[in-house]
Amino acid sequence: MSEEQVMDVPHDNPKIDELVKVYLTIRDAKSKLYTEYQLKSGQLEEELKQIEIVLLNECDKVGASSIRTSVGTVTRSIKEQYTCSNWDEFKQFVLQQGALELLSQRLQQSNFNEYMLNHSDEGLPPGISSMREYRATVRRAS
Question: Is residue 109 part of a domain?
């Protein structure tokens, strides 16, 4: 039987039926729990943001970068993030400056997979290895 073939398991195999049933039950419970977590986490995150606004205003009001209390210290800091609006220009800049450290070091998996499909006869590029594993996907009966 090849990987692409689908085989119907006879109805007299309760072990497989039971495993699929348990798998679906666990997956549903996990999904429900995750949804509940996201909802509660979002609510708590919003509360934290509101308190943070008040604390930052207090720092501004007294002209302090930190305020020490008996239960903890508030420290005002700046978080700066950068975004790129033109990747072609930025890539040229990186190459001209030899500043590869400005980029994250990870492969874009779907693009690399497509590259390998088109260059399979050449083998893997230097420094690259691959790992494959079988996965089971369970779908509900329709």
Answer: yes
Q: Which residue type, as a one-letter code, is found at position 74?
A: V
Q: Is residue 130 part of a domain?
A: no
Do the domain assignments include residue 19? yes
Per-residue pLDDT tens over the stretch 2-41: 556 666 656 667 788 899 999 999 999 999 999 999 999 9
- Specify if 78 maps to a domain: yes
Cα separation values, 38 from 45, 48, 134, Å: 10, 15, 30
The domain containing residue 22 runs over which residues?
14-122
**Model-wide pTM > 0.70:** no
